[in-house]
Amino acid sequence: MHPTPELYGRLVYRFLLTRQWVILTLITLLLIPVMIELGFWQKHRYEERSARNQLVTDALSAEPVPVEQLTSPGHRVTRTERYHSVTATGTFDTGHEVVVRRRVNSDDEVGFHVLTPFVLGDGKVLLVNRGWIPATGSQTAFPKVPEPPAGRTTITGRLKADETTAASGIKNVEGLPDRQIMLINSAEEARRLGTDVLGGYVEQTAPEPKGDTPQQISDPGKEDAPLNYAYMVQWWLFAAAVPVGWVVLARREARERARTADGESTPRAEPAAV
Question: Which stretches are transmembrane (predicted)?
Fold first, then answer.
Protein backbone atom coordinates (compact mmCIF):
# COMPACT_ATOMS: atom_id res chain seq x y z
CA MET A 1 0.00 0.00 0.00
CA HIS A 2 1.46 3.31 -1.11
CA PRO A 3 1.17 6.36 1.19
CA THR A 4 -1.10 9.22 0.17
CA PRO A 5 0.56 12.15 -1.63
CA GLU A 6 0.16 14.29 1.49
CA LEU A 7 1.74 11.67 3.72
CA TYR A 8 4.36 10.93 1.11
CA GLY A 9 5.30 14.65 1.01
CA ARG A 10 5.64 14.77 4.78
CA LEU A 11 7.82 11.68 4.74
CA VAL A 12 10.04 13.06 1.96
CA TYR A 13 10.52 16.43 3.73
CA ARG A 14 11.36 14.88 7.09
CA PHE A 15 15.00 15.63 6.29
CA LEU A 16 14.26 19.26 7.24
CA LEU A 17 14.34 18.09 10.87
CA THR A 18 17.87 16.80 10.58
CA ARG A 19 20.64 18.70 12.37
CA GLN A 20 22.21 19.87 9.12
CA TRP A 21 18.99 21.34 7.77
CA VAL A 22 17.93 22.87 11.07
CA ILE A 23 21.26 24.75 11.19
CA LEU A 24 20.89 25.80 7.54
CA THR A 25 17.36 27.04 8.18
CA LEU A 26 18.41 29.01 11.26
CA ILE A 27 21.26 30.63 9.31
CA THR A 28 18.80 31.53 6.55
CA LEU A 29 16.37 33.10 9.03
CA LEU A 30 19.24 35.06 10.57
CA LEU A 31 20.67 36.30 7.27
CA ILE A 32 17.41 37.77 5.97
CA PRO A 33 16.92 40.47 8.65
CA VAL A 34 20.66 41.18 8.76
CA MET A 35 20.75 41.86 5.01
CA ILE A 36 17.58 43.96 5.19
CA GLU A 37 19.15 46.03 7.98
CA LEU A 38 22.38 46.44 5.98
CA GLY A 39 20.28 47.70 3.09
CA PHE A 40 18.64 50.31 5.34
CA TRP A 41 22.09 51.32 6.63
CA GLN A 42 23.29 51.87 3.07
CA LYS A 43 20.09 53.83 2.39
CA HIS A 44 20.89 56.06 5.36
CA ARG A 45 24.45 56.56 4.09
CA TYR A 46 23.13 57.38 0.60
CA GLU A 47 20.75 60.02 1.98
CA GLU A 48 23.44 61.42 4.28
CA ARG A 49 26.01 61.69 1.49
CA SER A 50 23.47 63.13 -0.96
CA ALA A 51 22.52 65.80 1.57
CA ARG A 52 26.19 66.58 2.22
CA ASN A 53 26.90 66.86 -1.51
CA GLN A 54 23.94 69.22 -1.88
CA LEU A 55 25.23 71.39 0.97
CA VAL A 56 28.63 71.63 -0.72
CA THR A 57 27.04 72.46 -4.08
CA ASP A 58 24.83 75.14 -2.53
CA ALA A 59 27.74 76.65 -0.59
CA LEU A 60 30.08 76.79 -3.59
CA SER A 61 27.42 78.33 -5.82
CA ALA A 62 26.33 80.96 -3.26
CA GLU A 63 27.30 84.60 -3.70
CA PRO A 64 30.37 85.59 -1.65
CA VAL A 65 29.64 87.42 1.60
CA PRO A 66 31.95 89.30 3.99
CA VAL A 67 33.61 86.72 6.21
CA GLU A 68 32.45 88.36 9.45
CA GLN A 69 28.84 87.68 8.45
CA LEU A 70 29.51 83.97 8.96
CA THR A 71 32.19 83.72 11.63
CA SER A 72 33.64 85.50 14.63
CA PRO A 73 36.26 84.77 17.31
CA GLY A 74 35.43 81.46 18.97
CA HIS A 75 32.77 80.56 16.38
CA ARG A 76 32.47 76.94 15.24
CA VAL A 77 31.81 76.81 11.50
CA THR A 78 28.65 74.77 10.84
CA ARG A 79 27.89 72.28 8.06
CA THR A 80 25.79 74.86 6.21
CA GLU A 81 28.54 77.52 6.48
CA ARG A 82 31.36 75.25 5.39
CA TYR A 83 32.66 75.91 1.85
CA HIS A 84 30.58 79.11 1.59
CA SER A 85 32.45 81.70 -0.46
CA VAL A 86 33.56 84.70 1.62
CA THR A 87 35.51 87.89 1.08
CA ALA A 88 37.82 89.80 3.40
CA THR A 89 39.90 92.96 3.17
CA GLY A 90 43.09 93.37 5.15
CA THR A 91 46.83 92.76 5.20
CA PHE A 92 48.82 89.52 5.20
CA ASP A 93 51.08 89.11 8.25
CA THR A 94 53.95 87.02 6.89
CA GLY A 95 55.95 87.47 10.08
CA HIS A 96 53.62 85.03 11.85
CA GLU A 97 53.11 82.71 8.88
CA VAL A 98 53.28 78.95 9.50
CA VAL A 99 53.19 75.85 7.32
CA VAL A 100 51.00 72.77 7.80
CA ARG A 101 52.95 69.53 7.48
CA ARG A 102 52.17 66.40 5.45
CA ARG A 103 49.63 67.86 3.05
CA VAL A 104 49.19 66.56 -0.50
CA ASN A 105 48.21 68.30 -3.71
CA SER A 106 45.94 66.98 -6.47
CA ASP A 107 48.79 64.76 -7.72
CA ASP A 108 49.25 63.18 -4.24
CA GLU A 109 52.65 64.85 -3.80
CA VAL A 110 53.53 65.50 -0.16
CA GLY A 111 54.31 69.04 0.90
CA PHE A 112 52.98 71.89 3.05
CA HIS A 113 49.96 74.15 3.19
CA VAL A 114 50.83 77.80 3.77
CA LEU A 115 48.79 79.35 6.58
CA THR A 116 49.10 83.14 6.78
CA PRO A 117 47.34 85.41 9.31
CA PHE A 118 45.25 88.05 7.53
CA VAL A 119 44.74 91.16 9.66
CA LEU A 120 41.35 92.76 9.08
CA GLY A 121 40.53 96.44 9.39
CA ASP A 122 39.24 96.05 12.95
CA GLY A 123 42.38 94.22 14.09
CA LYS A 124 40.89 90.74 14.16
CA VAL A 125 42.78 87.97 12.36
CA LEU A 126 41.49 85.61 9.71
CA LEU A 127 43.54 82.48 9.04
CA VAL A 128 44.11 82.08 5.30
CA ASN A 129 45.33 78.85 3.72
CA ARG A 130 47.10 80.27 0.67
CA GLY A 131 47.71 76.86 -0.92
CA TRP A 132 50.22 74.04 -1.30
CA ILE A 133 53.99 74.13 -1.74
CA PRO A 134 56.33 71.13 -2.24
CA ALA A 135 58.58 69.81 0.51
CA THR A 136 61.86 70.17 -1.36
CA GLY A 137 64.28 70.67 1.52
CA SER A 138 64.75 69.54 5.10
CA GLN A 139 61.58 68.69 7.00
CA THR A 140 62.98 70.49 10.06
CA ALA A 141 63.70 73.82 8.34
CA PHE A 142 61.06 76.40 7.46
CA PRO A 143 60.54 76.11 3.67
CA LYS A 144 60.84 78.94 1.21
CA VAL A 145 57.34 80.39 0.88
CA PRO A 146 56.23 82.68 -1.97
CA GLU A 147 55.23 86.12 -0.77
CA PRO A 148 51.54 87.13 -0.75
CA PRO A 149 50.36 90.48 -2.13
CA ALA A 150 51.81 93.37 -0.13
CA GLY A 151 49.69 96.05 1.48
CA ARG A 152 45.94 96.20 1.85
CA THR A 153 44.18 93.66 -0.38
CA THR A 154 40.87 91.88 -0.78
CA ILE A 155 40.75 88.10 -0.94
CA THR A 156 38.05 85.54 -1.69
CA GLY A 157 37.97 81.98 -0.41
CA ARG A 158 36.04 79.02 0.93
CA LEU A 159 35.21 79.03 4.63
CA LYS A 160 36.34 75.86 6.41
CA ALA A 161 35.85 74.51 9.94
CA ASP A 162 38.72 74.15 12.38
CA GLU A 163 40.62 70.88 11.96
CA THR A 164 40.63 68.37 14.80
CA THR A 165 42.24 64.97 15.23
CA ALA A 166 38.83 63.35 15.65
CA ALA A 167 37.52 64.73 12.35
CA SER A 168 40.69 64.47 10.24
CA GLY A 169 42.53 61.51 11.76
CA ILE A 170 45.69 63.64 11.83
CA LYS A 171 47.59 63.44 15.13
CA ASN A 172 48.55 66.81 16.56
CA VAL A 173 52.23 66.02 17.12
CA GLU A 174 54.09 67.97 19.80
CA GLY A 175 57.63 69.30 19.51
CA LEU A 176 57.50 70.24 15.81
CA PRO A 177 60.11 72.54 14.23
CA ASP A 178 59.50 76.26 14.61
CA ARG A 179 56.57 77.64 12.58
CA GLN A 180 55.29 74.19 11.60
CA ILE A 181 51.92 72.77 12.66
CA MET A 182 49.88 69.64 11.97
CA LEU A 183 46.31 70.99 12.20
CA ILE A 184 44.69 74.30 11.33
CA ASN A 185 42.84 75.36 14.46
CA SER A 186 41.79 78.94 15.16
CA ALA A 187 41.78 78.53 18.97
CA GLU A 188 45.39 77.30 18.97
CA GLU A 189 46.46 80.05 16.59
CA ALA A 190 44.72 82.66 18.77
CA ARG A 191 46.84 81.49 21.73
CA ARG A 192 50.00 81.56 19.60
CA LEU A 193 49.29 85.01 18.16
CA GLY A 194 47.83 86.50 21.33
CA THR A 195 44.94 88.15 19.50
CA ASP A 196 41.34 87.59 18.38
CA VAL A 197 41.13 85.05 15.57
CA LEU A 198 37.96 84.33 13.61
CA GLY A 199 36.69 80.76 14.01
CA GLY A 200 37.64 78.38 11.21
CA TYR A 201 39.83 79.43 8.32
CA VAL A 202 39.62 80.29 4.62
CA GLU A 203 41.03 78.43 1.61
CA GLN A 204 42.03 81.26 -0.71
CA THR A 205 40.65 81.18 -4.25
CA ALA A 206 41.37 84.80 -5.36
CA PRO A 207 43.46 86.64 -6.23
CA GLU A 208 45.42 83.88 -7.92
CA PRO A 209 49.08 83.68 -6.85
CA LYS A 210 51.79 84.93 -9.17
CA GLY A 211 53.60 82.09 -10.90
CA ASP A 212 50.90 79.61 -9.83
CA THR A 213 52.51 79.12 -6.43
CA PRO A 214 51.43 78.32 -3.84
CA GLN A 215 49.16 75.94 -5.72
CA GLN A 216 45.59 76.82 -4.90
CA ILE A 217 43.53 74.06 -3.31
CA SER A 218 40.98 72.56 -5.68
CA ASP A 219 37.24 72.51 -5.01
CA PRO A 220 36.10 69.75 -2.66
CA GLY A 221 35.07 66.57 -4.44
CA LYS A 222 31.66 65.04 -4.00
CA GLU A 223 31.15 61.84 -2.06
CA ASP A 224 30.10 58.77 -4.03
CA ALA A 225 26.46 58.59 -2.90
CA PRO A 226 25.30 56.45 -5.89
CA LEU A 227 27.66 53.71 -4.69
CA ASN A 228 25.73 53.48 -1.41
CA TYR A 229 22.48 53.34 -3.39
CA ALA A 230 23.83 50.40 -5.40
CA TYR A 231 24.88 48.62 -2.19
CA MET A 232 21.41 49.20 -0.74
CA VAL A 233 19.75 47.52 -3.72
CA GLN A 234 22.34 44.74 -3.62
CA TRP A 235 21.70 43.89 0.04
CA TRP A 236 17.94 43.80 -0.48
CA LEU A 237 18.32 41.56 -3.52
CA PHE A 238 20.47 39.25 -1.40
CA ALA A 239 17.78 39.25 1.30
CA ALA A 240 15.20 38.20 -1.30
CA ALA A 241 17.50 35.58 -2.84
CA VAL A 242 18.31 33.80 0.43
CA PRO A 243 14.83 32.27 1.01
CA VAL A 244 14.52 31.47 -2.70
CA GLY A 245 17.85 29.66 -2.51
CA TRP A 246 16.72 27.76 0.60
CA VAL A 247 13.54 26.58 -1.21
CA VAL A 248 15.52 25.51 -4.28
CA LEU A 249 17.96 23.50 -2.16
CA ALA A 250 15.15 21.92 -0.14
CA ARG A 251 13.22 20.85 -3.24
CA ARG A 252 16.35 19.46 -4.85
CA GLU A 253 17.08 17.46 -1.70
CA ALA A 254 13.49 16.20 -1.64
CA ARG A 255 13.70 15.04 -5.24
CA GLU A 256 16.93 13.20 -4.58
CA ARG A 257 15.48 11.50 -1.53
CA ALA A 258 12.28 10.61 -3.43
CA ARG A 259 14.29 8.99 -6.22
CA THR A 260 16.29 7.02 -3.66
CA ALA A 261 13.12 5.90 -1.86
CA ASP A 262 11.42 4.85 -5.15
CA GLY A 263 14.48 2.86 -6.17
CA GLU A 264 14.59 0.99 -2.90
CA SER A 265 10.87 0.19 -2.99
CA THR A 266 10.94 -1.18 -6.55
CA PRO A 267 11.18 -5.04 -6.38
CA ARG A 268 14.11 -6.56 -8.19
CA ALA A 269 13.23 -8.81 -11.18
CA GLU A 270 13.80 -12.53 -10.61
CA PRO A 271 16.44 -14.04 -12.89
CA ALA A 272 15.01 -16.11 -15.77
CA ALA A 273 15.05 -19.86 -15.33
CA VAL A 274 17.65 -21.68 -17.36
Answer: 21-41, 229-249
Report which of residues 227 and 14 the model is more confident about.
227
SS3 102: strand
Query: Residue 129: which of 26, 211, 14, 216 has the closest Cα?
Result: 216
Residue 160, helix vs strand vs coil: strand
User: What is the total count of domains within the chain?
Assistant: 2
- Give tens-digit pLDDT for 3-53: 555 545 555 678 888 888 899 999 999 999 999 999 999 999 999 989 888
Query: Domain range for residue 256?
Result: 5-48+225-260
Is the alpha carbon torsion for 256, 261, 262, 264 positive or negative?
A: positive
Domain co-membership, 44 together with 159? no
170 residue type, one letter: I
Query: How far apart are alpha carbons 105 and 134 in whole angstroms?
Result: 9
At 77, the amino acid letter reads: V
For 123-130, what is the mean pLDDT? 97
